[in-house]
Amino acid sequence: MKILVAVKRVPDPNATIKVRPDGTGIVTDNLKYVVNPFCEIAIEEALRIKENHGGAEVVLVSVGEQVCQEQLRTGLAMGADRAILVLQDGDVEPVIVARALAKLVEQEQPDIVMLGKQAIDDDSNVVGQMLAEMLGWGQGTFASEVKLSEDKSSAVVTREVDGGLEDVEMPLPAIITADLRLNEPRYASLPGIMKARKKELKEIPLGDLGIDQSVQVKVHKLSPPPERQAGKKVETVQELVDLLHTEAKVI
Amino acid sequence: MIAWSESQLMIRDAVRRFVEDEIKPNLEALEHGDMPPYDILRKMYSTFGMDQMAKAGFAKKIAAEKSGEEAQPRSNGGDPSARADQVAATIIPIIELCRYCPGMVTAMGVSVGLAAGAIQSKGTIEQKERWVPDLLTLDKIGAWAITEPDSGSDAFGGMRASARRDGDDFVLNGSKTFITNGPHADTIVFICKLEEEGVDARERRILNFVLDRGMAGLEQTPALRKMGLHSSPTGELFLSDVRCGIDRLLGGANALKATGGGRAGAKATFQTERSGVAAMALGMVEQCLELSVKYAKERVQFGRPIGDYQLIQDKLARMEVARMNLQNLVFRTIELVSQGKTMTFAEASAMKLYAARAAVEVAMEAVQVYGGNGYMSEYQVEQLARDAKVLQIYAGTDEIQIRAIAKDLLAAD
Ligand SMILES: Cc1cc2nc3c(=O)[nH]c(=O)nc-3n(C[C@H](O)[C@H](O)[C@H](O)COP(=O)(O)OP(=O)(O)OC[C@H]3O[C@@H](n4cnc5c(N)ncnc54)[C@H](O)[C@@H]3O)c2cc1C
User: Fold this and answer.
1) N or C: which end of chain B has fewer CB within 10 A?
2) Where, residue-wise, is CATH 1.10.540.10 in chain B?
């Protein structure tokens, strides 16, 4: 069994993000980068499938700049077997990531492609879905539980939907995207971290994949959210009720 | 070594995350309450596979010893950077924990470094197999007891704790104080003198015994109240006629034959302790510096951030100098150990002296940068300042380090 896991490098969700004055992007000086938290959950799930289903090869893929190898090493330290970095400078739009993954799926022939449900930087939430469409595979998105059949020919994915849970079953190979409650990712162990540097990390320029690289979406401008206004202190409950009524107009 | 490697930074980030998740939420209970540090330390060991690593290392060493070979200092034979990573993997958690809980590091260091270390360096193969693995994984907590109410810096000279021969057995007596992990220890290395007819007390043979919690005649007191280092319980031990066999005497019958026995062994232990202090100091200094820089930018007086004032800048600059020096000392230690080399006793003493003084100075200056807030427990520098002081006292006081350095200098031709 082989599981391909997509890994994106994103700014640390705990960092304070500042938009550049000209609106062309964010200030990246001294910004700390991490594995997208949902991708980390996807890696963890792949490792658990490997551990609980008699082994599997877990292959990580990232599309981006050279520095993305830091995030791939983190995944290797957690226990993934090898990694592929598709090199491309600058932002890569989701459809190109999906095409690159589709190409690698052709080469690697995995049984499952695991992804995070979305990346916490641009929140696009599309790569898994587009990849399923390109490959013509079934998809279980927003997974909060993944169960494989005994013979590993199909998977049941529990999805968190409005007001409850939905179980969908699909034959493998399939696409699964991880939601927050799927699992709690492990820490990389110290021996794991030390072994990671010896694991294979293959680099392929995006251009070598021979995919359509035409850009379809252009980011025009980023703007920061409006500054929060200072709050108001009230003396009595009555005053609060009045203001909620007259000013906030919520009651 | 001139900088942390990529793997080492990854270790640092992983440990930092653990500190965020597991230690910070408990900081109040650990440093201002009575929460013992052991459960969190055990969790750290199992989370990061440190227990398995220690066990595997021990198994290798024992196997080599049994086959009569010298144990290789580090595996990974030819790859020096991999060896450095292995050494750094033991030092980085010390640095990171010391940013918050120097006491936890003390508790851990005494258990795995001193107690297990003493058994490993002086014990027979049977003794090592009996006690060391559980100590290395922190399944059992160890204590190492040399200090007595009337004998501290003059540890061997003034020592009163005694072992009397009684047939094949030994009968142990004495009291020990300021013993890290004393209240909770499962395994205690007890250092004492052999009662010998006609030998002056100062010249008597030093013996190390391993005691288990609950042995008849062994009392472990509750933790003493102290200035700082609250996440490390410190207590007293009282032994009255504790009877044990030669199986508990480290080194067995050989310990009774060897000349000068015990003193040299304990000295080796001092050396490990002393080099660990540099890593501890680095963690505390890094934290104090980071907090001070942040506060200097935020705190406004006379209409400007206090960081604009040269007197505050001077403090920050000195902290940075200390941080760089300590980091270089730590890099040097990693480099030496990974090459299987050791530093001289005087060098280890010099390093400890500098590290302790730097930590105290930086932590006190951090309190000063914070002003009244610095004196309040709500701000972490207050705790770090109290904790730092111990570095000048335990593992040999500053004065004793100076003595060792000077003795070495003056002995040379
Ligand atoms: C928190 C804590 C944990 C500890 N943990 C342990 C432990 O786990 N195991 C253990 O065995 N011990 C432990 N100790 C004891 C520690 O090692 C001793 O406190 C230390 O060695 C100093 O001994 P002392 O307290 O008796 O001071 P003393 O030796 O009485 O020293 C008092 C003062 O006199 C100075 N002085 C002494 N001799 C000379 C000299 N020749 N020249 C100049 N100045 C001198 C000292 O530097 C000091 O300033 C711990 C201590 C503390 C505070």
Assistant:
1) C
2) 6-140
Q: Does B11 touch chain A (CB under 8 A)?
A: yes
Residues of B within 8 A of A196 (CB-CB) are 7, 10
Quote the pLDDT of residue B266: 62
- Would the CA dihedral through A85, A106, A132, A4 be positive or negative? negative
Q: Is B179 in the pocket of ligand 1 (CB under 6 A)?
A: yes
- Tell me if chain B has a CB within 8 Å of the CB of A192: yes
Structure tokens at B353: 């002296």
CB neighbours of A180 closer than 8 A, spacing ≥ 6? Answer: A37, A38, A41
Q: Is B144 in the pocket of ligand 1 (CB under 6 A)?
A: yes
Residue-averaged pLDDT of chain B:
93
Nearest-Cα residue of chain B relative to residue A75: B10
Average pLDDT, chain A: 94
Ligand 1, residue B110: give the atom nearest the CA: 8
Do B232 and B250 touch, CB atoms closer than 8 A?
A: no
Q: Please state the domain count of chain A.
A: 1
Instruction: Judge: A188–B86 Cβ closer than 8 Å, yes or no.
Output: no
Tell me if residue B221 falls in helix, strand or coil.
coil
pTM for the full predicted model? 0.90
Interface pTM (ipTM) of the complex? 0.85
The CATH number of the domain holding residue A144 is: 3.40.50.620
**What are the chain A neighbours of B11 within 8 Å (beta carbons)?**
190, 193
- Give exposure, B137-147, as e/b (b: 16+ Cβ within 10 Å): bbebbbbbbbb
Q: Does B6 touch chain A (CB under 8 A)?
A: yes
CATH fit for domain B143-259, picks 3.30.230.10, 2.60.120.260, 3.30.559.10, 2.40.110.10: 2.40.110.10
Question: In this structure, which residue's CA is closest to atom 14 in ligand 1?
Answer: B178
| CATH 1.20.140.10 applies to domain B265-411 | yes
Q: Within a domain: residue A182?
A: yes
The DSSP line for B57-92 is HHHHHHHHHHTTPPPPSSSSTT-HHHHHHHHHHHHH
Please indicate whether, in this complex, the C-beta atoms of B82 and A196 are within 8 angstroms of each other: no
In a domain, A231, yes or no: no
Flag residues of chain B having pLDDT under 70. 70-78, 258-272, 412-413
Residue type, B315: K
Question: How many angstroms separate the CA atoms of A226 and A19, rounded?
Answer: 12
User: What's the one-letter identity of residue B195?
Assistant: E
Q: What CATH class is the domain B6-140?
A: mainly alpha
Reported as a single tens digit per residue, the pLDDT across B69-85 is 765 554 555 688 889 99
Q: How many CB pairs under 8 A join A and B?
A: 44
Domain that holds residue A201: 2-224
DSSP strand pairing (A82-87 vs A201-205): parallel
Q: Cβ(B313) to ligand 1 under 6 A?
A: no
How many angstroms is it from B365 CA to the middle of ligand 1? 25
